[in-house]
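Hey, can you fold this one?
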Amino acid sequence: MRKEKAFTLLEVLIAISISTFIIFAMTQVYRNVVRYISKNRELMSLNRKVCLLVDQMEKDLTCAFIPKLSKNGPVKKNQKSGKEVVKKEKKKKEKISFFKVEIYEDETRRVKGKRWELFKNINFITTNPLLVFEQNCQRFIRVSYKLIKDKETSTREKVSYNLFRKETLNLENEEFLVFEEGVKKEKEDLIHTYLVAKNIKDFYLQCVELKIKSDESQSEKVEYEQVRTFVWKDEEEKESSKKEKEKKRKSCIVPQKVEIVVNFWDEELRYEHSFECSIPIFSYLVEKNVAESKKK
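Sure. Predicted structure:
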């Protein structure tokens, strides 16, 4: 009887065990690669959102300023002649806010060991309109960024917000009120609304201002200190005294810069990613340089 060579049962078991180990390792490597690619795609998408958000807010905030005022309201320049023309008021308003920041009440969070107030709305005047067609001159607009809760994606445990941007040519429409139906709308009364970012977990905005640290009468050299605040509102000049007006001239009505911290959710609201940026306001720097040059 002829005997043929073959694998024993032990050899077959060893081969199956080694093959199983190799397949399991390759499966784990494949899952890790897929997870890594998915995470990178998610980070790229988030970076794109953040870049678009910061780029738009930077273009608006760096150009924020306080327009020249007259007795009847903001002064504008005629596009054809270039002369200053006073805009007529439809309704007299005691005071117009040119730069205002609001927060959600009782929404204090801790970020990196510091207390931050949840941002609600920022409202200011700038020269960066999104819609410009066949115009060679700059336009003054009122811009507003508002953080609104997204009821569709939010749950009881996890809240998601959307950030909207509004702009209007009507500088006096501080609340961005929409006219009733049947009322004839002018071009300046139109309100353009855009969704800037979504799936926001937290959004914090902090205004930074330079204030005089030492009195000029006691020291020749003026020292400044940075004061940070989450709420900003224009002070009314009419009710202020002469000393307060002099102090106000030394400091600026707009902040020196704005610091932003934003946390984004992923698409499934499982993980969060934090981003920070600082945006300077150019009109503040111009006013400070002019004031210092006058002193010299």
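The longest helix spans residues 9-61. Let me know if you want another pass with a different chain boundary.
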